Fold this sequence. Notes:
Blueprint: H1 10-17, H2 23-39, H3 44-62, H4 67-92, H5 119-134, H6 140-153, H7 160-168, H8 180-197
Helix pairs in contact: 1-2, 2-4, 3-4, 5-7, 5-8
Protein name: RteC protein
Amino acid sequence: MEIFTLLNAKFFLQLEDGDEDNIKAHYSDMRAELVEYAHSNTHWRVIHTGLSIFISEVAEILGYAKGLLSRYAKRILEIAKCLLNQIEMAVSAKIALDPVTENKEVQETTAEVTFTGNYADFCELIHLIIACKLINGGSKATQQHIKKGLHSLFGLEFDPKKYQNARDGIKRRCPAKGSRVTYFLDSMVDVVNAELAA
């Protein structure tokens, strides 16, 4: 069952057994497996549950682990917590996290929606959606699918060069206090709502 995938990893099994043998290599494999698991096309609820169980199990083992095992377990635990936090932030911002089929054609929209804002802001919006939906960007094919789909939704033609030029020219804005990520997520939702209401 996919929920328990992480608990079958060599790193976790050795951690459970208190076996330090080749733990550095297994740590590297575990780190890569965590990222791959979080980026997979599995439903976000399954990923969330799997990460939550993994975090709980590793935290429990940390209570008695020593030496190298303790050090590597702490590092893995922090990575897992960060991935879980990204999913929770995306969900709280009401961003759809359903898997995107990479070979799926972009559907033509019949809604007459026009974009009224600054194109650079629109590009930043797309970038944030990709970052939140796919955690670390996902594959290039999936990114292209999202970019083309959002351009189509707002009646715009997707030009990769124009898009990149706009992205390069964006000056990221951030309040003096508070979470930078929360600020951008809130801004993103505001832009989407404003454009859909226009």
